[in-house]
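Trying the structure run again after the queue cleared.
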Amino acid sequence: MSDWREEYQRKLVSPDEAVRCIESGDQVFTYAQAAMPVALMEALARRKDELRDVTVYGANTMYPYSILQSSDYRGKINYATFFFQGYEHQYFDRGNVSIISPHFSRLAKCLSDVYHVNVLMMEVAPPDEEGYLYFGIVGTAAGWDVAQKADKIILQINRKQPRAHGYHNRIHIRDVTWLTECDQPLPEYLQPESSEVDRKISELILPMIPDGATLQLGLGGLSNAIGYGLKDRRNLSIHTEMYSDSMMYLAKRGAISGKQVAGFAQGSQALYDYISEGHVEFMPLSIINDPVEISKNDNMISINTCIMADLTGQVCSESIGFRQYSGTGGQLDFVRGAAMSKGGKSFLCLSSTRTDKQGKRHSKITVDFPKGAVVTTPRSDVMYIVTEYGIADLYLRSIEDRVHAMISIAHPDFRKELHEQAVQNGLIRD
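Done. Tokens:
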């Protein structure tokens, strides 16, 4: 038995034993999506009455952790999310979920310099022949950065976790404090059907994406419509925060011949199997989302969705009034990176209207935002805003030009009202 195998056996303990090293005041980074250390998290929850002022940092939790479900944990084992989705939504009103919302390019700095995270606790793939464990399809996003400064590293090994590739995606057993084993299925994200609005928006954007472009796409029906719509392009590359099934499809079709780099992946089991074959290189978000790194790709194309936009081009992508809906994430990182890229373009997309619970229709392009709405992307950074009615080119335009462009892509039923409101508020002249 080689040295690393002996060390593996020495460090292999039960989940309850593994979390014994966590002390009051520790700041713990974990993750969610397809890298949930469920056994470790539930073992930590069982120490509720022994601990004070421990905070666990995660995102988009796809498992109903005990610490989310009750305010009894508050002050003992707190939970903070840096992208508010999944069970965090469901249990927010229970009182033990708090929200932080950094740009993903600054997530590692946020965790180390602001919250002083000192414990890494996450799921990994089994070791290779040299004794390296692999962070998998999600953990590289911030796990590698946190591991460089953590004084305790507790890892849950899951044989179903793909061994994703990349320099930043592994950690040696000698650097780990404790290990536990727990095989569990990876959560899959089923691809939503593209709506008629999604298809109309994609038809507007697709002609603006040239052969040889580098792509960043979000997740959802619109991204699928665009991703699958690029099947006949050639020499594409991928530089994206999140890798998805539509990108795998393009690669298998031969549309992608350049690099494929990402921060994490979310999708089907077929996607996870594809990633395990080494086709995609994973890097920390501190690199992937760095606007300067993004800008090094000529013809960088960034496509994301938003909740609403005002007439001057301010974009809200994360809240509905004061109510947090998701997070800042990497939207502005990629908007800025694409703007700095030679030939780069960024598109922020939304349907022109929404319908409330009473069946009344409202414009999602407004003269101003509702009270409490968050500006995710400032108007001075926005390039293109797209609805099913057209594309508004706002980049470096005057306020008056912006307003006219935004009215032109609003739903026809609201254009007259928006024009009148713009005049009343001094944004344009009648």
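The radius of gyration is 23 Å. Worth checking whether this holds up in the mutant runs.
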